[in-house]
Amino acid sequence: MRKYNKEKAIVYNTVQMYRWDRITYLNELKVTSEKESFFIGMKLVRGAYIEKERERAKKMGYKDPMQKTQENTDRDYNDSVKFCIENIDKIALCCASHNEKSNLLLIDLMKQHNINVDDKRIYFAQLLGMSDHISNNMGKAGYNVAKYVPYGPVKEVTPYLIRRAQENTSVAGQTGRELSLIKTEQKRRKK
Ligand SMILES: Cc1cc2nc3c(=O)[nH]c(=O)nc-3n(C[C@H](O)[C@H](O)[C@H](O)COP(=O)(O)OP(=O)(O)OC[C@H]3O[C@@H](n4cnc5c(N)ncnc54)[C@H](O)[C@@H]3O)c2cc1C
Q1: What span, in angstroms and rounded, lies between the C-alpha atoms of 187 and 191?
Q2: 13-151: what fold?
């Protein structure tokens, strides 16, 4: 970002808001970017490796970097979305989330701040195969939406996808939400 984001955000970093120290990190980064005159590109995620992170901290004997509860993660995620919008002149953001409330919050904030739906500094992103109801409707409404496609050699990608399915509590939660939406829609169409 220091090197390439002198005129606009080209390079983006990812912050995982399931870490309790990330709001402080974002504040510090903003101060640095102002001092050193560069734009920030930020992809905001909640974080996909909670079990592994906790296991690693225990094994290596450092403080658990994870938030104590999902509510804390949700609070910090939404606060970081607000922080980016309040500093949109300096920070471009990608809201990489399947959480309907966080996506709606960003939509509301864009309205409040009179930001166009297709402003290039704001992207919404979901993983391929997940939350099409969010991606499709947002795309149709004119927002910038990206579908994130994990790709690579089968022997590396397949274990990655299996790990996501087995370990990531968010996959189970999201699948449940999506399935209930699909069932509701099926019932509506049968009427
Ligand atoms: C486009 C895209 C790119 C991504 N890139 C990355 C990446 O680079 N790095 C990465 O780590 N992840 C990445 N992810 C995965 C992302 O972190 C998960 O999709 C996300 O954790 C699921 O959260 P959600 O915002 O969709 O909301 P939800 O499904 O509402 O939230 C679930 C999340 O909340 C958090 N959580 C759940 N229980 C607890 C608890 N007890 N305590 C604290 N927190 C809790 C966890 O982060 C969990 O995954 C990406 C996702 C997308 C859509």
Answers
A1: 7
A2: TIM Barrel (3.20.20)
* pLDDT tens track, the chain, 191 positions: 999 999 999 999 999 999 999 999 999 999 999 999 999 999 999 998 898 899 999 999 999 999 999 999 999 999 999 999 999 999 999 999 989 999 999 999 999 999 999 999 999 999 887 888 899 999 999 999 999 998 899 998 888 777 666 644 554 566 677 788 888 989 999 98
Q: Which atom of ligand 1 is nearest to the CA of 17?
A: 47
Residue among 46, 73, 130 to mutate when testing ligand 1 (max atoms within 8 A of CB): 46
Length of the chain: 191
Q: Indicate whether residue 125 lines ligand 1 (CB < 6 A).
A: yes
Q: In whole angstroms, how far apart are CA 63 and each of 17, 25, 109, 118, 173?
A: 16, 17, 34, 41, 27
Could you identify the residue written with the tokens 């709001």? 23
What are residue 126's DSSP bridge partners?
Answer: 147
Residue 19 Cβ inside 6 Å of ligand 1? The answer reads no
For the chain, the structural domain boundaries read 13-151
CB 99 less than 6 A from any atom of ligand 1? yes
Q: Whose CA is nearest to atom 33 of ligand 1?
A: 170
Q: Assess whether the C-beta atom of 48 lies below 6 angstroms from ligand 1.
A: yes
CA of 47 from ligand 1 middle (Å) equals 4
